[in-house]
Amino acid sequence: MWRPAGGGSHVLLVHRPKYDDWGFAKGKLEPGEHPLLAAVREAEEETGLRVALGRRLPPVHYAVSGTPKRVDYWAATVEREAAAFTPNREIDAVAWVAAAAAGSRLTYQRDVETLAAFRAGPRPTVPLILLRHASAGSKDDWPGDDVHRPLDAVGMGEAAALADLLRCFGTSRVLSAPAERCIATVRPYADTTGTEIKVEPAFDIAGGDGGAAWAGAMSAGEKAVAELATTDQPVIICAHRENIPVLLAAACIALGASGPASTQIRKSEFLVLHRAAGVLAALERYHPDGVLVHGAALVPDGAVVPEERRRGGSWQAHWSGGLVKRANPWAASRVSAAVSLRG
Questions:
Q1: Which of 85, 101, 149, 234 fits 48 for a cystine, CB–CB 3.0-4.6 Å?
Q2: For the range 214-218, what are the long-range contacts, defined as Cβ-Cβ under 8 Å and sequence gap of 24 or more?
């Protein structure tokens, strides 16, 4: 956690009496808990502060009594004080310390390196989130106009989960393509945050037939997202498989960066573009199933390059993964449990 202080910044350190050490707030995932939710929950439990997550910092790996540990950190800002801090057996003191001087207060070298990674990048960042709509069965099985096709049972569960996950990045303006499945995907988030959903025709896919209407829709979408990318306003855009690659490419160009080579994402998956002063500071990818994808690094020429992704203990290419098809659209179902990644 950090906050502006004059011309610099302060970071929040916590003291653990059991180990008599100073470090950053952290904790373990509960069974089935999503890493984003765990990060926000642990910060609040240990410090009493509700945070909004910014760019993701490099993961930390170390061993305790021969057992490998992994901790994932985000550069988080304080939204509000959820509760007054009360010293307890786990954390008995907290301290805001100037980032430039915090290294001397930290007990472990790995935390010093995390601090250095934080200080090396931009501190205030603003999210632009590109979200693919949740599960809505197949248009071949829907008898009506495709624009009215609703979310199926799985999709409704995903939309509810997304409301909590998107909230981890603060409160954002919400824009949606005109299709009901897109609007319904962000409706729980909008209801939770008291935000109005603006239906944006520029994010329509015009039937997706590749004709003149399609080309016009893609051009309108490129222009709209390029304008949004260069603002300092947090924004969520819910769109389709067909146009998210186009929107991502246009946003990256507007921010002076090249996008990843492959941009196919699953239903309910979302990309977080962290922007700072008109530049792309980090690019991350998340899904309600708990897959944790590392933020893409920015190489010197500004091109975005993929790093790694972890699911169930195995590592996969950052941008790999195809589309998941489900049988029995709109049938009763439940969202599968998230993968636990313990730090």
A1: 85
A2: 217/243, 218/243, 218/246
Q: Residue 8 CB: number of other CB atoms within 10 A?
A: 13
CA distance 272 to 168: 12
Distance CA 2, CA 97 (A): 9
3-class SS of residue 89? coil
Q: Which residues lie across from 174 on neighbouring strands?
A: 197, 236
Residue-wise pLDDT tens digits, 17-75 = 999 999 999 999 999 999 999 999 999 999 999 999 999 999 999 998 999 999 999 99
pTM summary value:
0.84
- Measured CA to CA, the distance from residue 41 to residue 49 in angstroms comes to 9
The Cα–Cα gap between 208 and 77 comes to 40
Q: For the segment 154-199, what is each residue's pLDDT rounded down to a tens digit?
A: 999 999 999 999 999 999 999 999 999 999 999 999 999 999 999 9
The alpha carbon torsion through 281, 287, 288, 291 (nearest 10 deg) reads -100
Which domains does the chain show, CATH number per domain?
2-120 (3.90.79.10), 126-316 (3.40.50.1240)
Find all residues with CB under 8 Å of 4, minimum gap 6, and list them.
10, 123, 124
Residue 37's SS3 state is: helix
Q: Of 51, 44, 49, 12, which is closest to residue 168 (Cα–Cα)?
A: 51
What residues are paired with 11 via a beta bridge?
2, 97
First to last CA, the chain: 18
| Phi, psi angle pair for 301, to nearest 5° | -80, 0
Q: Give the pair of three-digit tokens for residue 80.
A: 């509000």
Q: How far apart are CA 247 and CA 253, in angstroms?
A: 10
